[in-house]
């Protein structure tokens, strides 16, 4: 059974072709925008990775400085402990000398004023 309607097949094909062509152009534009966004995203990602690398280096240097400072503080603490022991030793020596001088002075006063010869 042949269909013999009033449909103009050429105009229908042309309409479908134009619609499809419009869809393809929109899809191409969408792909171009997506590609541009992907390129921009890649550039941003590269910049972020570079910046993170720089920050990592900065943190590693800071960590090393902290370790060096800690080592220096440990050395300073050891020096201060030695100095503290030296000061304590000097005080004890001075106290012993003062006691000896006091004893000698007491002996001299006793011999000079209290001993009857």
UniProtKB/TrEMBL annotation:
One of its GO terms (biological process) is retrograde transport, endosome to Golgi. Pfam families: V-SNARE_C (PF12352). Keywords: Coiled coil, Membrane, Protein transport, Transmembrane, Transmembrane helix, Transport. The keyword Calcium does not apply. It is a single-pass type IV membrane protein. Its main location: membrane. One of its GO terms (cellular component) is endoplasmic reticulum membrane. It is found in: Membrane. The keyword Plastid does not apply. It comes from the Eukaryota. One of its GO terms (molecular function) is SNAP receptor activity. The chain crosses the membrane at residues 92-111. PANTHER family: VESICLE TRANSPORT THROUGH INTERACTION WITH T-SNARES HOMOLOG 1B, VESICLE TRANSPORT V-SNARE PROTEIN VTI1-RELATED. Belongs to the VTI1 family. This is Vesicle transport through interaction with t-SNAREs homolog 1B. The gene is LOC117640735.
